[in-house]
């Protein structure tokens, strides 16, 4: 009525805009505020209100313009500065957002809302200590502000003050016990404390109030996986997919869970569905390729085709550097290593003794770590590097630029398609020579990766076509074992005490396929009285133990022939080798680290000859340790060797007494010898590049 009586009445249009906004008619509200401004261009409240509606519509650029006009007209009003700062934060202008919100706090230091906004901006910038001060100030001023308690809890968690985070999170729930976000926040904190069961309880509580949240279902699934309750995790992952069937990360997580259940074929289908939703996600490609590389019916041509697709998509988004060959002129070769496994991990275990023996007059070592967790292995590795760079939070282009800025000559990928890899950065060609080594057992698919480092056993000439990279073969093995920092001595041969032979396998249970169970059952039938000791973390679950017994029972092997043990501390793990006479390497996926550790503990390993890189790993280790006669050519030979070795107690006892020393003297344990070969390889790659291009250099 006011507008009808006076069509140029700006305040009436502003009031109309407020009413329309309250009714949820945001487009009409924008028009009404626009009319108010048209009739009164100096109407600061109308500009502010227009900015509010535009913010709810996520039109942040337009909202910022409107708030700027409001600030210009009324520079002393704190809430307008606060709104402008919040809009700037939403569109990613962190520095200006923080400066604007500080001005809002100066204008009204008693306004809890502007303190909360400033705290949020500071937390977004990673300045959590400052953010905590402002969230605590909000609580002082308002007491019962749920958002402030939630924000405080999150900021405390980011500072690793997890117990305090839990208390703030509990207070938020007390203030609003029907808000799902509060339970989710508390669950996150419990998860970080490794109180996984408590986290699961809180995620389930959150679902009571928000049952249609795919995020909560997926977080619950992740926690259930961590608790090794994979079948429950599968149900939650499937619920998340049902709620958001077009979201890539839902399918990718479901695939992760399916892989844990052992349903690799279904996992592969889910990874492919995720890539249909998001065809440029490197993490999904990595998971898919890891799965494909681990299939029993592996097809090298099909794998390579998928790997090339991954490499091509990464190259599409890259702007690779061009490098001009230049001689070293007396300087050291600068070698960079990219890994998330500079810790207690097979990569860290095999790397430690090597970097300790590299000739620092020939090579300069630079680490680029992609994972924050550090341990005693990290502490021992760090001193051997001239540079140590954390790139965990850097994007692909930032990672590539950081590496390029370090003037690396030879860049070594230690991950391949495993967790925490940075393969997309290699597509930018930040170093003139790039090589993949140690962490993975199949081609990366990255055309810019020049070499794949192996040896004559894992990379025979007949299998070169499995890789986009050119092979570079080290003279002995591509692996060098680092003796563990555990003082567990080799014990006497157990069968002398037990009266029967005990075969063992301490690797992941997923490697013990149905085919392996069948062959091992034949072996146990062929050696009366023999027992099989299986030690794996999966065997902590009684249902899995029952299923394992049932798998062997299907082949006539009773439960009395099996000894099933869950994972343990490292000391207890090494001590367990003193209860096994001969270790059985599964196939086609043999033990790598466990093979080397078995030999260290004086226990010989029976392996099977393979047909591709990963299936050759045990061969490489056994040849390097001088145990080539422990490699079977086929199933019949595998069983025949097991029977023959089990009958010669004297030979097994003598071998056990001297195997550790034999291993230490062999190429597998001779770190100095290996380090010289590795230095020569890096310098050889450099010389080949100076002479032409990696493509023109001969395969080694």
From TrEMBL:
<keyword id="KW-0677">Repeat</keyword>
<feature type="repeat" description="TPR">
    <location>
        <begin position="248"/>
        <end position="281"/>
    </location>
</feature>
<comment type="pathway">
    <text>Protein modification; protein glycosylation.</text>
</comment>
<dbReference type="Pfam" id="PF13432">
    <property type="entry name" value="TPR_16"/>
</dbReference>
<dbReference type="InterPro" id="IPR019734">
    <property type="entry name" value="TPR_rpt"/>
</dbReference>
<feature type="domain" description="O-GlcNAc transferase C-terminal">
    <location>
        <begin position="316"/>
        <end position="478"/>
    </location>
</feature>
<dbReference type="Pfam" id="PF13844">
    <property type="entry name" value="Glyco_transf_41"/>
</dbReference>
<keyword id="KW-0802">TPR repeat</keyword>
<feature type="repeat" description="TPR">
    <location>
        <begin position="78"/>
        <end position="111"/>
    </location>
</feature>
<keyword id="KW-0808">Transferase</keyword>
<feature type="repeat" description="TPR">
    <location>
        <begin position="180"/>
        <end position="213"/>
    </location>
</feature>
<comment type="similarity">
    <text>Belongs to the glycosyltransferase 41 family. O-GlcNAc transferase subfamily.</text>
</comment>
<feature type="repeat" description="TPR">
    <location>
        <begin position="112"/>
        <end position="145"/>
    </location>
</feature>
<dbReference type="Pfam" id="PF13414">
    <property type="entry name" value="TPR_11"/>
</dbReference>
<dbReference type="Pfam" id="PF00515">
    <property type="entry name" value="TPR_1"/>
</dbReference>
<protein>
    <recommendedName>
        <fullName>protein O-GlcNAc transferase</fullName>
        <ecNumber>2.4.1.255</ecNumber>
    </recommendedName>
</protein>
<feature type="domain" description="O-GlcNAc transferase C-terminal">
    <location>
        <begin position="497"/>
        <end position="677"/>
    </location>
</feature>
<dbReference type="InterPro" id="IPR011990">
    <property type="entry name" value="TPR-like_helical_dom_sf"/>
</dbReference>
<keyword id="KW-0328">Glycosyltransferase</keyword>
<feature type="repeat" description="TPR">
    <location>
        <begin position="10"/>
        <end position="43"/>
    </location>
</feature>
<dbReference type="GO" id="GO:0097363">
    <property type="term" value="F:protein O-acetylglucosaminyltransferase activity"/>
</dbReference>
<dbReference type="InterPro" id="IPR051939">
    <property type="entry name" value="Glycosyltr_41/O-GlcNAc_trsf"/>
</dbReference>
<feature type="repeat" description="TPR">
    <location>
        <begin position="44"/>
        <end position="77"/>
    </location>
</feature>
<dbReference type="InterPro" id="IPR029489">
    <property type="entry name" value="OGT/SEC/SPY_C"/>
</dbReference>
<feature type="repeat" description="TPR">
    <location>
        <begin position="146"/>
        <end position="179"/>
    </location>
</feature>
């Amino acid at each position: 009525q006011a507008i009808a009586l006076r069509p140029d009445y700006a305040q009436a249009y502003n009031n109309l805009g407020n009413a329309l906004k309250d009714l949820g008619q945001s487009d009409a509200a924008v028009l009404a505020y626009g009319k108010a401004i048209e009739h009164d261009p100096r109407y600061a409240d109308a500009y502010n209100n227009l900015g509010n509606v535009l913010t709810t519509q996520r039109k942040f650029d337009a909202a910022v313009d409107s708030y700027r006009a409001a600030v210009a007209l009324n520079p002393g009003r704190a809430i307008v500065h606060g709104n402008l700062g919040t809009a700037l934060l939403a569109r990613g202008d962190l520095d200006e957002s923080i400066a604007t919100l500080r001005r809002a706090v100066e204008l009204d230091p008693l306004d809890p809302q502007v303190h909360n906004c400033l705290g949020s901006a500071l937390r977004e910038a990673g300045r959590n200590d400052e953010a905590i001060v402002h969230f605590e100030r909000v609580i002082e001023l308002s007491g019962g502000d749920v958002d402030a308690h939630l924000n405080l809890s999150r900021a405390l968690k980011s500072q690793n003050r997890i117990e305090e985070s839990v208390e703030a999170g509990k207070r938020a729930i007390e203030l609003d016990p029907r808000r799902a976000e509060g339970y989710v926040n508390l669950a996150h904190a419990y998860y970080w404390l490794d109180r996984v069961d408590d986290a699961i309880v809180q995620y389930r509580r959150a679902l009571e109030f928000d049952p249609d949240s795919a995020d909560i279902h997926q977080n619950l699934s992740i926690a259930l996986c961590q608790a090794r309750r994979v079948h429950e995790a599968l149900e939650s992952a499937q619920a998340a997919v049902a709620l958001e069937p077009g979201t890539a990360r839902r399918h990718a997580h479901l695939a992760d869970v399916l892989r844990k259940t052992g349903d690799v074929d279904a996992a592969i289908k889910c990874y492919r569905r995720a890539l249909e939703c998001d065809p440029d996600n490197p993490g999904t490609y990595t998971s898919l390729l890891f799965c494909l590389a681990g299939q029993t019916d592996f097809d090298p041509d099909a794998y390579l085709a998928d790997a090339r697709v991954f490499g091509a998509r990464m190259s599409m988004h890259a702007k690779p550097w061009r490098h001009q060959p230049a001689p070293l002129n007396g300087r050291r070769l600068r070698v960079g290593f990219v890994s998330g496994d500079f810790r207690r991990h097979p990569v860290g275990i095999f790397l430690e003794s090597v970097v300790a023996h590299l000739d620092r007059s020939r090579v300069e070592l630079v680490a680029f770590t992609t994972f924050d967790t550090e341990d005693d292995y990290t502490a021992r590795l760090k001193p051997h590097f001239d540079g140590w760079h954390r790139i965990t939070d850097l994007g692909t282009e930032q990672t590539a630029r950081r590496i390029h800025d370090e003037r690396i000559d030879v860049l070594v990928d230690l991950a391949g398609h495993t967790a925490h890899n940075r393969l997309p950065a290699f597509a930018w060609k930040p170093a003139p020579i790039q090589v993949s080594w140690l962490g993975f057992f199949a081609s990366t698919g990255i055309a810019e990766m020049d070499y794949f480092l192996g040896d004559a056993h894992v990379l025979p000439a007949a299998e070169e076509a499995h890789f986009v990279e050119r092979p570079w073969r080290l003279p002995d093995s591509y692996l060098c074992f680092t003796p563990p920092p555990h003082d567990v001595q080799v014990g006497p041969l157990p069968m002398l005490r037990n009266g029967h032979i005990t075969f063992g396998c301490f690797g992941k249970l997923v490697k013990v396929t149905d085919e392996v169970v069948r062959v091992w059952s034949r072996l146990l039938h062929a050696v009366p009285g023999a027992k099989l000791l299986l030690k794996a973390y999966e065997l902590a679950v009684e249902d899995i133990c029952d299923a394992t017994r049932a798998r062997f029972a299907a082949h006539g092997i009773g439960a009395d022939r099996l000894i099933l043990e869950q994972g343990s501390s490292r000391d207890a793990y090494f001590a367990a080798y003193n209860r096994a006479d001969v270790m059985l390497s599964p196939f086609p996926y043999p033990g790598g680290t466990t093979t080397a550790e078995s030999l260290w503990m004086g226990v010989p390993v029976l392996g099977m000859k393979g047909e591709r890189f990963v299936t050759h790993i045990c061969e490489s280790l056994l040849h390097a340790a001088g145990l080539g006669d422990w490699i079977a050519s086929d199933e019949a030979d595998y069983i025949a060797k097991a029977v023959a070795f089990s009958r010669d107690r004297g030979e097994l006892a003598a071998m056990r007494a001297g195997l550790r020393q034999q291993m230490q003297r062999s190429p597998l344990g001779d770190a100095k010898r290996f380090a010289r070969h590795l230095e020569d390889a890096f310098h050889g790659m450099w010389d080949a590049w100076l002479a032409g291009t990696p493509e023109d250099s001969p395969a080694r």
